[in-house]
Amino acid sequence: MDSKIKTADGTETFINSEFNEAYHSTKAGAYTESLHKFVLPCGIDRLVKEKERVRVLDVGFGLGYNVAVAVETAQKNNPQAFLEITSIEKDRDIFKKIRELSIPENLRDIYSQILSGGFEENIYTAEGTNFILRVIFGDARQIIKQLKGPFDAVFYDAFSPKVNTEMWTVEMFSSVKKLMDRRAVLATYSASLAVRKGLVEAGFKIGLVEPVGRKSYSTVATIEGDIPPLTEKERYRLEHSPYALPYRDSPDMNLPREKIKENWEKQLQDRLSKQSNP
Ligand SMILES: C[S@@+](CC[C@H](N)C(=O)[O-])C[C@H]1O[C@@H](n2cnc3c(N)ncnc32)[C@H](O)[C@@H]1O
Question: pTM here?
């Protein structure tokens, strides 16, 4: 049974009992995390001033904060602009949880539009004044193969690599990259070296985003867009740390999560023992 909790900025989230993790950083706050780790690092405020239609890929729809805050940011920056949002989510009961949240005043109207949609097979569609949202239900690893790009921004928000490992592999990042406009930015809260190295191996240039509610910087990735740079220290760690080891799936992305983790741990142990007995 998932339990509801209040986060640092007063907005609510849930602890997911399957993954034993919160949907949001409790220290940053659910709303604050969406704005500062996803929506602004992807440049939604800027994109809506440059284009009338902006396509967003939202991996891990969850409680819908990233989507709602993106819509709010678009409305504030250009009320004429339109967001076309494709979300992926595996939990078909997610809307029950959203209905239990007390939604912050500034997002109420947007959430009521998000919740006004309907299902057709595994796709939920909702139309709002300045957005259309399609949530495709199923395993992201399979759904991603069927999508058509190009997307202008990607919110990459699965549970942490330790518990949701299959979502953080080089194969998954390569599939997402194929769907992105060359200037699009992918944003994720993760600061894991394995994730950063995985993004690099998938062919992304990566950068760091100022921390919110914790010490570590979050991560952005792009093919050739503008992103903040990596620090020298992080560049060094990515080249020299034994932990800069990406997670790997099979080419068709169907290895069990435990197998992906097991392979990674074996390789890590190998690297660590070579380091201590060169
Ligand atoms: C950290 S939460 C997302 C929070 C959300 N972005 C928000 O703003 O409220 C991660 C989400 O990813 C979903 N997820 C995890 N593994 C998945 C998979 N293999 N395929 C699709 N969705 C997955 C979970 O069900 C969960 O809702």
Answer: 0.98
